[in-house]
Specification:
single chain; mainly alpha; 82% helix
């Protein structure tokens, strides 16, 4: 079994679910993530759009089995985690910590798989 496929499948799933949730049910999704900030309806919908685009890109990496971008996905998610900690630090909004948990659940196994393969 190729665990790269499994780790990126998780990423596609959480991005697709979050894209639909933030785009079409912004307030309910903000409540689900325990947000205490006021971002209106537009900003969560924009975030949903961006997550949908990312889900589509990762899905195409999976579909084409183009593993050259696997390490790029690790770097990008690592930057996202660091920036989410920064956003949490300046906003004190627990939503950023919860999103980080979701990202880290997929990122840590990806890092392990990458280095175990020795690439």
């Amino acid at each position: 079994m190729d665990f790269r496929r499994l780790t990126l499948t998780y990423v596609v799933i959480y991005l697709a679910v979050a894209a639909v949730g933030f785009a079409f049910l912004p307030q309910q999704f903000m409540d689900l993530f325990r947000s205490n900030g006021d971002y209106g309806d537009v900003m969560p919908r924009l975030v949903g759009l961006m997550m949908g685009v990312l889900a589509f890109l990762i899905f195409n990496i999976l579909r084409n089995e183009d593993w050259h971008y696997y390490i790029v996905s690790i770097y990008v998610r690592s930057v996202i985690v660091l920036f989410m900690f920064y956003l949490w630090g300046i906003s004190d909004d627990p939503m950023f910590l919860l999103i980080n948990v979701v990202v880290l659940i997929g990122l840590l196994p990806s890092i392990y798989v990458h280095f175990r393969r020795g690439e």
